Fold:
Amino acid sequence: MGVGLYTHCFLPTSSTIPLRSNSFLFNPFTKSLQTHLPKKPANFSIAQASKCSGVEEMETHQGNSMSLIVDPHKIDPQLLQKMEYDALVWSSLHGLLVGDRNSQISGTVPGVGMVHAPFSLLPMPFPESHWKQACQIAPIFNELVDRVSLDGKFLQDSLSRTKKVDAFTYRLLGIHSKMLDAKKIEEIRLGLHRSDYMLDEQTKLLLQIELNTISSSSFALGCLVSELHRSLLHQYKQYLALNPERIPQNNAFTQFAEALSKAWSEYNNPRAVVMVVVQTEERNMYDQHWLCTTLKERYPFETYQVTSIKKTLAEIDALGELLPDGTLVVDGEVVAVVYFRAGYGPRDYPSESEWRARLLMEQSSAIKCPSIAYHLAGTKKIQQELAKPNVLERFLENKDDIVNIRKCFAGLWSLEDSNIVNDAIEKPGLYVMKPQREGGGNNIYGDDVRETLLRIEKEGSEENAAYILMQRIFPALFPAILVRQGISQKHHVVSELGINAAYLRNKTKVIINEECGYLMRTKVSSSDEGGVIAGTGVLDSIYLV
Structure:
């Protein structure tokens, strides 16, 4: 799923500092790798840096403690240019890359039209207590998703009104209903999830935005940004006075690869493959390649390696077949694990071919990541239903777990609640309207909330079932330097923390249930949406304070 960023604050941006693109040119005659980067800045002395590095005391709260961090907007331009140059070189050499939107084939042919992934030059301060809170509840959310997925009636009932006005949800529920009628049981269940949060500035509460159960992406690139920031803080420690060890270790893609390998092992067919379901064009392909390469190189089993193949939904429909025993075979390969990096939104199903492929996979004995039930458990409507009084108690027994989960719930309401709808019409800036969609760019903000609600009321339709209302979260704003396409810009920004988690179960045995690193995304405060690949957000890391 695209790495969209939900938020809402508004501040003017500042100046732009141009740098040329860091695209590669390989000369076959000299066999030398040259980077098209700006001329390397002249040496910058420590004496100079100590006078103008921008180190100053800024308020960062953990209890009553204060920490020294850097205001990047006050870093001396000469030092800033050197840091940007080194960051671009590091990104190029370490695979922090995406396809360049200016190259027509950058989303289909690897190694062509590459550009660095957009990133923040320095990590974002984040309270250590809230970081620990988010990590500690990740396994509880894993268990919650698994238990919700097993309650077919709850899923069907909760989404019954939504499916009447949302064709995509209708089709997903239709597949789920067929699996229920066939009494199809997923004995081996794999979830690679990400729970997204913002830290509300007024209440100081860590509030959940959403729980992603399908196609959580950019975790490999997120790990690389953490390493980039750690490298910069170490290289410029005499200038910035920041401790690289305050950036948490981020091993998301190796932990996700391990979860996939263990699921493959549970399938118990050493010649079977992991099939990655991909979109026809994918500028974020290198994030996927990092995972597949790690899967192959780091998790061999005896004489076998975990082999992965990539197929679109249309290719699966054309090349896939279901054997009498339920085995899924695609292009001659037995599939042990189906890992979705597509299929999360209507645009991935332009014809009946794609829907046939989704049904074929669900009918098979392959391990689905996610299954149709896990997919539905991550919808916005289910998130809203779980926030109702006494609903968590239907799925969780431990009272402390229930308290800890409920503590991070923002306000969530159905549009059947007339009091909340009237309040949202009167004060639309305090709410967000969310449809049953993943991938960013779908939410409704500000005056558009009022206009949409009034239109639905006037038409008297059941379209209100397609949305939920959510409390709008207002996080703190911070100064930052954002780098995209080799150009750095000074902005005031807000950030969203995603905690990755893996869950693997075989019947009654829980094999994996753990937090798996994080994805920090930062966006300009004046933008509602913040998709990294879409072009409005950047990748970031956190600096614990």
In short: The longest strand covers residues 487-506. DSSP finds 17 helices and 25 strands in the chain.
